[in-house]
Queue: 3 jobs
Job 1
Amino acid sequence: MTATPDAKPRGTRLPRLARRRQLLSAAQEVFVENGYHAAAMDEIADRAGVSKPVLYQHFPGKLELYLALLDLHVDDMVNRCREALASTQENKLRVQATFSAFFDFVSTQGEAFRLVFESDLRNVAPVRQRVERSLQECAEMVSELIQEDTGCTSDEAHLLGVGLVGMAEVSARYWVTTHGSIPKDAAEQLMARLAWRGISGFSAYGITRSLGAIIRRFRGADRPR
């Protein structure tokens, strides 16, 4: 989402939703470039090609504008996670898809992920609540699948879900700061393999595979030498 294609000369009338998208696009550029505290409503209005009163018609203040933009991106992150989990019935591929969802999120839309994960408003209650809620939603979706496939309790599955989502978030954020020193696909696969090696031990598949390895080992020991 970038402001330049949507910017209009002052006085150009747009439908309300189109104008709102234009203002949010301009605001994203300014917030990402300057941070919340250094961003000015005057600059956002200028970037969008509107007067300041027009900006205030849509958003009563800078915080409301920021929260509206934040809502778009946390919803996008949750939807990416939901789609990843629904994209396959194979758990190993679900893990890979979930990591891809987070890596995609941090590598698209003009560093908009910084509004979610690196905001200078992170400790302001409405911002913190939105970010925490979005990560919890992702963790709950993951934990539901874990509980379905394992003998874990609800609390155990939720803790595992939080751990997996946290691993995906932190590793994706770290990767983007390295400016692609590891190719994106390789980084996703690396972290997904690490996560799968851990989580598969809790699944029915992982347990079956472990039992099979033990049986094969004992059968090998019984063979004549």
Job 2
Amino acid sequence: MITIVAIGLIMTTFPPIRAFGISVLGSAGVVGALIGLSARTALGNAFAGIQVAFSDGLHVGDVVVIEGEWGRVEEVKLTNVVVRLWDDRVLILPTMYFTERPFQNWSRHEARVVGKVQIHVDHTADLEDLRTETQRLVESSPLWDRRRWVLQMVDATAASVVIEVQATAADGASAWDLRCDLREGLIGYIRDNHPQWLPRTRSEYKP
């Protein structure tokens, strides 16, 4: 580009070829614009990589949730980020994605994560009984990191109440499996021992 511009400027100093020099400069401007447009994305990703590095929002090994799927960050480069998803797929995203769109970082300060399970039950369900069974399931699971667990009623509707179980695990993969085990165990316990606690649709008869 510098050479073309220099040649064009030199040509404009000679009257016989001034018009040709001006056309060369015009061509150089068009080429420069095309190069600038093609480099815009690459430069944007490069600046985004610098921003991610200085903001300290993403590290190798972090557990993230992107577009509803969780994975672990394997590489953080200047222009792209490599994420290994839970099913071993590899997701390669431009660094600009993490500066322009929201994402969840489950392990920004530590690798341990909290697994959450929500279950709808009937209003007549005994929460203390469910807490006892949940404690048995959590404490017998090798996936629980022995740090914290809790069962709470987080919502109530006309048809049911919503209970939420939270239990900590060492990493995202363990938290996912622990959530599945707790959900399966609680549903099985209610179905086999207290089927009346399953959500029901009530109707009122008026003669």
Job 3
Amino acid sequence: MRKFSPDYLRRTRAGMWDGSREALAPLSLGDRRRILDAGAGTGELARVLDSESPGEVVCLDADPELLGIAHEETGLDAVAGDATRPPFPDDTFDLVVCQALLVNLPDPTAALRAFSELSTDLVAAIEPDNGDVGVDSTVDSEVELEKRVRAAYIEGVATDVSMGDRLVSLFRESGLSKIRTRRYYHRKVTEPPYDEGALAAARRKASGGALEQHERELRKTLSADEYDALRSEWREMGRAVIEAMREGTYRRAEVVPFDVVVGSVDG
């Protein structure tokens, strides 16, 4: 499984579920007694689950650093463990849910089957469709470059990061029934006045750091010369973004679609 930094998780989840939580309705959070957030990371989803449910929420993650942050910042119980071999007895929870976990696992079906054993009622997954991300920017080169990087990344990554409709099939293969699905759009907008997060993101682009976090995957599909050329273009684009910010003219909108799929353990 790929490893993510706390900063990366915070940046990519910032504002998620702030606008509407209607897509979470099939999870029946108001009726839950005990929920497991599998692959909880730094606890972004766990906070939402805890605020929407009267039940107990438990965080599970294989990364002790992320788990420590989740526990410290949410106050929720946090347990270290592998999502495909969770350290709980069967039927411990009435909802097991994950967010952006299955797309990072080599065998997502193994995780869903494990979740089915843990839950007495529902299993849910909230997974991004990275192949259908939309970006608009006042810096024209940013749109084209992000499209190229995303295509190369999807080709080079070892897991299925754009499951889309396949997620429903995985639920069926795992023995789950009464499957319901909704699509949620996480929209992130950068516009004046720019906060520190937006300024830091621009600096990462100008330094090449935003590209380097995916260097391993990109180099699997790009030659050394192609990667170096892409990195040079990326840094130039980053400098253009910073200049547009200085002028107060920079605006960027990104829409990431998430599929919310819920299945019942018993028929």
